[in-house]
Write a structure and sequence with these properties.
The complex is a heterotrimer.
Chain A lengths: L1 H6 L4 H31 L4 H6 L12 H8 L3 H32 L5 H13 L6 H10 L6 H11 L1 H13 L3 H9 L4 H12 L1 H17 L2 H5 L9 H5 L10 H31 L6
Helix pairs in contact in A: 2-15, 4-15, 5-8, 5-9, 5-12, 6-9, 9-12, 10-11, 12-15
Chain B lengths: L1 H18 L9 E7 L8 H14 L4 E7 L3 H13 L6 E4 L5 H7 L6 H5 L22 E9 L2 E3 H6 L9 H13 L3 E3 L8 H15 L12 H12 L12 H9 L3 E4 L25 E3 L13 E12 L5 H14 L2 H11 L2 E2 L11 H12 L2 E4 L1 H4 L2 H15 L5 H12 L2
Parallel strand pairs in B: 1-2, 6-7, 9-11
Antiparallel strand pairs in B: 3-9, 4-9, 4-10, 5-7, 5-8
Helix pairs in contact in B: 2-12, 8-9, 9-16, 15-16
Chain C lengths: L4 H32 L2 E2 L7 E2 L3 H8 L1 H33 L5 H9 L6 H12 L5 H8 L16 H10 L3 H11 L4 H9 L4 H30 L3 H6 L11 H10 L3 H27 L1 H15 L1
Antiparallel strand pairs in C: 1-2
Helix pairs in contact in C: 1-13, 2-13, 3-7, 3-8, 3-10, 4-8, 8-10, 10-13, 12-13
Classes of the chains: A mainly alpha, B alpha/beta, C mainly alpha.
């Protein structure tokens, strides 16, 4: 539909709108790119330049040494892998469990449904920092302290309310008649889930998965709490290697952040088509 | 594509599970030691060497496994949680001074008194344990200490028209005015983040005004109000935006040579000698001199010194006597005077252990030690003298004071409310 | 749909993993939090029961009240300014202007940049002496407006809030995915009828995403607004004079003080405020009448 409008003559009103549109697009692009550029520039300064001179000046000489420092942190690569691994596995389990429960809550009226729905909604709001002590005890009792399993279980669990909420929101919008038609055709509980509801709620599932993965990727407090071995550390721990209450090596920290961002941005660009096509290949709405 | 991803995941999973079961020899005692003396901490390199040497000397029988912790706040959260749930690590570092008494009384840590009485105690400075023991038992060892004394840039002081560091706060504020006239910041203040620099200046003022017994009646001592008034006055002579500033800003201004006086702990001394921080080939250390806290007219302080315990060592109670012996052996190894001497040399930090300083100790370190040795008495930095809530509330209280939301009495009241639980 | 007899078993099986997780990781821990909220406990010594004293103290603490208002403002701004901005960009980009794929990727970047880096950058922008914002104001002759943005009582909270509002990438991607599922026939028909882009957005796009992705984004943004912690913690730590404090930050500081009772009490209040908020948002978006009508329709269908 865009192609067809390129050719006809634009009215002055349309020209103004087009200009406004591009101003907005470019403003937001600069707004989001600026931190990235600044980060890369800062990661090439000396600490003296970063602290004592203007934070927006260019470095006199690019300090590649900062990247050497960052890479010298034992196991930065391993930390990246751990983050990807824990994040992916937790996300997969999370969306499986959440889409099952969302299906039940969204498509069936049964006794206790409202209370279960309220329970999930309230779960979104629980400030997890308050639960450090109980979570530590639970993970310890399950014998999962200092294991991938503990991290995966905890990350999968803390995202359940949010994922259920996101997936359920989409399932609610699927018309009932589609499912009823399937029912009349002899589709059972699982058949309707796999062949009707799941394909139609891909958008919600992908949204939930992205959110869950980002949560895992950025999580630090619990990653530090329930893990002690360096082999299991995630990238957020690596980023903080250069911070210290009494002497922070800012520039090396920025180099570590840049190193940690590169795979996530590459991953996002590579998977973007999959994600987006997953989001859009569902039913046409109307 | 899907198959590849599935295969990849399975592989990573198997590899991950295999990796999470570390293999240790059966009869080897493993000591778990979460440590904040890692990463960019000045003690990191030598501490790592100490642990490595210890493990080598005890190969096959004891192995210390360090859990690197670089984020102080996250570390404190973790240690508190493990202690609360009764699973304290074998050896750990504690740094929230005011909680030490409660920890010592909790009975969750190993009683070290018998070992200290066997001669190990003589390694520590006199009276080191007095304030931290419970029921006559020592379970928590004060290890790293710090003294806080101003350091100033001599070139800049001359530019302000002064040939000596002010001996009284009257003189100090006169110097502040001269610095301002010369286009310089007299000192760095910060009310952002944890308001560290301002809290240090507040301690110095409290010491100068209230003297050595200032903490005897808590925050009711009038010295706290008077010190707040003086602190507020100082904000007129610091850089723009000090209310939102952080430690990075304070350090940056001093490094940029636009601020005359610097106040921080001895761990920062190494920065005076870094090539990165030299300007026109002149090291910052070459322009710097150590001062003593000025006295306050009508104040009770006289040649006092503000100090703190920067880090305590503690060990969890053990059921197994062999493990207890191993833990004690490791603690004795770290606190061995010869090792501490090396640790002090490499980091610039100070300790509650009697040791012979290395002749290679930096000039500034030597001068700070000299100031410390000449002090008539010491008082704790405010953050160690009051419950943690004091330090948590301090940034809010000091910014309220500077922004005229409260007066000096109101500032003290805010802190009182915070610690009054 | 009402579960048929043969559905009951599978239904229970499908719900149970989530329910077990909810019970273990939310219900039991929250009960723990509620119990602790009635104690005076430092986590080391024996606790004493003080019943509702912690809540009383909370409501008398001006900085807590301030953090509740801050969170409510944050949630409202996120839900009703940030999300509409994201929707605007989603509508613009879903028209596939030149380079739209590039922009869609770029807008998402801040989600993967560490919060520490963003906070340091914005502190540098707002800084009094070397700050970019003050430099800009001075350059255009508005130097008298320059100030310590994060160190002034009046400007600190707006400054913390505003910079965050323009990071719209995440919500934009959610809504864009939804918009692309809209049948293009609608737009073609509207174009033939001479409807402008603007009219098409108002009469076709927004109504069709209102109850799905728009509702999702508004709820999500508001909830995240109520749970706001990391940004404030790293940018201002709640200062100056507690003007940028939030509920979770307040709670976190009480935990640092080992004041577990008060920390838990503020967590309980946060959950209560949040539930009220979500109920209100649902009411705004679905509306009583519509919901009742939908229920009637469902009932009819069931017969």
């Amino acid at each position: 539909m865009t192609e067809s409008r390129v050719h006809h003559k634009l009215s002055p009103k349309e020209v103004v709108l087009a200009v406004l549109r591009w101003i907005l697009i470019i403003f937001f692009a600069l707004y989001t790119l600026f931190p990235l550029v600044w980060l890369v520039i800062s990661s090439l300064k000396t600490n003296f330049e970063f602290l004592a001179l203007s934070p927006f000046a260019l470095p006199a000489k690019p300090q590649w040494q900062n990247y050497v420092n960052a890479l010298s942190v034992a196991g930065l690569g391993r930390m990246l892998l751990n983050s990807v691994f824990v994040g992916l596995v937790a996300t997969i389990f999370n969306v499986i469990v959440a889409s099952m429960s969302a299906y039940c809550i969204s498509r069936f009226r049964f006794k206790g449904r409202e209370s279960i729905y309220t329970l999930f909604t309230a779960g979104i709001l629980v400030p997890l920092n308050a639960l450090m002590v109980p979570y530590f005890v639970i993970i310890n009792r399950l014998g999962l302290y200092n294991t991938y399993g503990g991290m995966i279980l905890l990350y999968c669990a803390i995202g359940i309310p949010m994922s259920t909420f996101l997936i359920r929101g989409l399932m609610d919008s699927i018309p009932l008649d589609l499912e009823e038609a399937a029912y009349i055709d002899g589709c059972g509980f699982f058949g309707r889930f796999f062949y009707v509801i799941l394909p139609l709620s891909r958008t919600g599932i992908v949204t939930a998965a992205t959110f869950e993965f980002l949560t895992c990727w950025n999580e630090f407090v619990f990653a530090n709490l329930i893990v002690s071995s360096e082999k299991l550390r995630t990238i957020q721990v690596g980023i903080r290697y250069f911070t210290n209450q009494f002497s922070t090596d800012y520039v090396s920290m920025y180099a570590a952040i840049v190193i940690s961002i590169v795979p996530s941005i590459l991953g996002y660009i590579l998977f973007q088509e999959q994600i987006i096509s997953g989001m859009t290949s569902g039913a046409v709405k109307g | 594509m899907k198959k590849t991803i599935a295969l990849l995941l399975t592989l990573v999973m198997v590899f991950g599970l295999a990796a999470s079961f570390p293999a240790y020899a059966d009869d080897e005692i493993v000591i778990n030691f979460p440590s904040i003396w890692v990463g960019t901490d000045s003690k990191a390199a030598y501490m790592a060497k100490l642990v490595e040497d210890f493990n080598a000397e005890n190969a096959g029988s004891i192995k210390v496994v360090v859990e690197e912790q670089t984020d102080y706040q996250a570390y404190r959260d973790k240690i508190r949680t493990t202690i609360t749930t009764g699973s304290a690590p074998d050896v750990c570092i504690l740094d929230t001074t005011f909680d030490i008494k409660a920890y010592a009384e909790s009975g969750k840590f190993m009683d070290l008194t018998p070992y200290l009485n066997e001669g190990w105690g003589a390694n520590f400075t006199d009276g080191a344990f007095d304030a931290w023991s419970a029921d006559g038992k020592v379970s928590i060892l004060p290890f790293e200490s710090a003294v806080f004394t101003p350091i100033y840039n001599t070139k800049l002081l001359t530019q302000c028209g002064w040939d000596h560091f002010p001996a009284t706060y009257d003189e100090f504020f006169q110097f502040c005015k001269d610095a301002k006239a010369a286009g310089l910041n007299a000192m760095g203040q910060m009310a952002g983040d944890n308001a560290w620099s301002s809290m240090l200046w507040y301690s110095l003022l409290v010491e100068a005004i209230g003297g050595k017994d200032v903490y005897a009646d808590g925050l009711d001592n009038p010295a706290f109000v008077k010190a707040a008034e003086a602190l507020k006055e100082m904000y007129a002579y610091t850089f723009d935006g000090a209310v939102s500033a952080t430690a990075g800003d304070v350090n940056g201004h001093f490094l940029n040579r636009d601020t005359v006086v610097y106040l921080n702990g001895p761990w920062w001394i190494a920065n005076f000698y870094k090539e990165d921080n030299a300007v026109d080939g002149v090291l910052l250390a070459d322009d710097c001199e150590v001062a003593v806290n000025p006295s306050f007219e009508g104040g009770l302080g006289d040649k006092g010194l503000v100090t703190t315990v920067q880090g305590f060592l503690a060990a969890a109670k053990q059921d197994d006597p062999a493990k207890e012996a191993a833990v004690v052996k490791f603690l004795q190894y770290i606190t061995d005077p010869a090792h501490v001497s090396e640790l002090a040399l490499s980091s610039g930090a100070m300790f509650f252990v009697k040791y012979t300083p290395s002749p290679d100790t930096s000039v500034i370190s030597q001068k700070v030690t000299e100031v410390a040795n000449n002090a008539a008495y010491t008082i704790l930095h405010v953050n160690g003298a009051f419950p943690t809530a004091f330090s948590t509330e301090f940034p809010a209280a000091v910014s309220s004071l500077i922004l005229d939301q409260v007066d000096a009495q109101g500032f003290v009241d805010m802190l009182k409310d915070a610690i009054d639980e | 749909m009402k579960p048929t007899r043969s559905d009951r078993g599978p239904l229970a099986a499908f719900l149970s993993p989530a329910l077990v997780i909810m019970l273990t990781f939310f219900v039991l821990p929250v009960i723990y939090v509620v119990v602790v909220s009635m104690l005076k406990w430092n986590g080391i010594s024996a606790p004493t029961v003080v019943w509702f004293q912690n809540f009383e103290k909370l409501f008398r603490d001006k900085s807590f009240i301030r953090s509740v208002t801050n969170n409510i403002i944050w949630a409202l701004v996120a839900g009703f300014i940030q999300v509409p901005l994201a929707m605007l960009m989603a509508i613009i980009l879903s028209r596939k202007p030149r380079g739209w794929k590039f922009f869609r990727t770029v807008y998402f970047f801040p989600q993967v940049i560490s919060g520490i880096a963003l906070a340091t950058l914005w502190r540098a922008i707002y800084s009094a002496d070397t700050g970019l914002l003050n430099g800009l104001l001075r350059a255009i002759g508005l130097g008298h407006l320059a100030r310590d943005w994060l160190g002034t009582v009046e400007t600190a909270f707006p400054a913390v809030l505003i910079y965050w509002v323009f990071y719209v990438g995440y919500y934009m991607v959610i809504m864009m995915a939804d918009i692309t599922t809209i049948d293009t026939a609608y737009y073609e028909a509207a174009t033939i009828d001479g409807a402008s882009d603007f009219q098409q957005a108002i009469y076709i796009t927004i109504p069709l995403i209102k109850k799905t992705s728009l509702l999702t984004c508004v709820t999500l943004a508001s909830v995240l607004g109520l749970r706001q912690f990391e940004q404030v913690y790293m940018l201002t730590n709640g200062g100056p004079a507690n003007t940028t404090n939030t509920m979770v930050l307040y709670m976190y500081k009480k935990m640092q003080d080992s004041n577990y009772g008060r920390a838990s009490a503020s967590a309980v209040i946060l959950i209560l405020v949040g539930v009220i908020f979500i109920v209100c948002i649902r009411a705004i978006f679905t509306g009583r009448n519509e919901e009742a009508a939908a229920a009637r329709k469902r009932r009819r269908e069931m017969k």
